[in-house]
Amino acid sequence: MAISRNLFVFFSASIAALLSLSLVSNLNSAKWGVVLRLSRDVADLVVTNAVIYTSDLATPFAEAMAVRDGRIVRVGDRSSVQDLYGHGTKVLNVNGQIVVPGFIDSHVHLLWGGLQMNRVVLRGVNSKEDFIKMLKEAVREKPEGCWILGGGWNNELWGGDLPVASWIDDITTKNPVWLSRMDGHMGLANSLALEIAGITKDTKDPAGGSIMRTPLGEPTGLLVDSAMNLLLHAIPEVSVNEKRDALVRASKLALTKGVTTVVDIGRYLPGATVEDVWDDFTAVYKWAESKGQMLIRVCLFFPMETWSRLSDLIHKTGRVISQWIYLGGVKAFADGSLGSSSALFYEPYEDELDNFGLQVTETDSLYNMTMASDKAGLQVAIHAIGDRANDLILDLYKSVASSNGNRDRRFRIEHAQHLAPGAAARFGQQRIIASVQPEHLLDDAEYAAKRLGVKRAEAESYLFHSLLANNAQIAFGSDWPVANIDPLGGIRAAVKRMPPAWQTSWIPSECVSLDDALKAYTISAAHACFLDKELGSLSPGKLADFVVLSITSWEEFAEGSASINATYINEVLWHSALPWPQLVG
């Protein structure tokens, strides 16, 4: 009896204490929406009063979502999550706003972009005079002998004339200069930089690249594709700390755009050293993960020349280094770019009748590396922009798949920009992923007809709708820093296909629906890098990465008026455009 009486007193006191604690806690935390309940299996966070687009065909839309330990527990109407409220549950009332899965950018150069943010940014410069003016300002800020680096210029914005070293030689006599074109497949060096790199009239064009020359054979300062590597080796490598800072800088920018995961293609160009990408993996990404400095998830691709190295690493560690770092696959190049007139086509360029573009990697080499990579179980991604380059890779992929047998390989073609008749159907038939960048079409629409002629440009360019109609899968990305890292901008571009100042769509038959565009930035993008079991949709069991938009209606979304209110990773708020989280009782 004494024991029973003591137990009764103990439990009575405990319940009273808990009730007292519940009352005080409710009073102290009402503004944060904390609901107290004595229950073991409760949610850490409930998102409610929302229009949730899930990217999950099983439950396309929902009103509420419950999250526990960084993963989604339940998605449904508000009543379906009521039993998950409990002690410590925070409630995010978004007041009818649209919530979508965290965006996945399927093609970025993350560290390159972060480094470029602190260099001479020439994107949008629309005159020779402004180009020179920006270089003058950069020179004033640099000590003598220091390299001036930057890029983003687009010669089409000032009429098409390509820049030459003589534009800037007089103002950069003491500083070597390297300025990459917006597409990264061409760059301008001043004469001092050419001298330091040893590039002269007698320097031969490397395989897969060209040195642009005057009629007398002198270098103009422009280097295309693999020819850029004749100079890049002379530029001092950035410090580890600069690269680590670049990662943080780039990640913070991505979060403001609702991007929670990126596929990082790396700092690699045809013919360049493969070590930069591997050094970045070790000294930047693994360091950041070990120090708790990762802000977004990354899926890393490595130069295909190093396929065996990646295969060995995956056998040792698996593809998942952590919830922040995933080992993706290998990447190679077939051709250059349209803007640099180095994309590989069947027919010559309209404005250069002797130029069909460049094949930057020999077919036998591409085939052998792809065969070995695929046999090792690696995912393969190959850059192809011109119609001939895309057919080349489709043929190559078909041959490799036939030789190595059936498996879930998810071959990717990066860009898939210009497709010959029948190629879109082949993507679907061969189950090839088209990793495409919608915002590129806004730039190319202005000069594609000049390069290709109106008929070819309109028949072949950015065939998003045709690819989907042929059951191909598309994954959207930005190619940042070539274009802005901005999924909402990419969605607008894919849905409307209307460049700035245009009143009509470019090739309107290739516009896609808002639903298709959203899927291409979420579940399809996750599938394209083998992360669809963890990411890409707001489904039970998956990681709780989501974005709160500024709008409440699909009509507003379709019109392109949405912006990012908040970005969550693992249910934790990482970016907010508001002064404080919208957590209410």
TrEMBL record:
Ranges of residues in domain Amidohydrolase: 91-550
One Pfam family in the UniProt entry: Amidohydro_3
PANTHER family documented for this protein: IMIDAZOLONEPROPIONASE, PROTEIN LONG AFTER FAR-RED 3
Protein name as it appears in the record: Amidohydrolase 3 domain-containing protein
Gene3D superfamilies, A to Z: 3.10.310.70, Metal-dependent hydrolases, Urease, subunit C, domain 1
GO molecular function, one term: hydrolase activity, acting on carbon-nitrogen (but not peptide) bonds
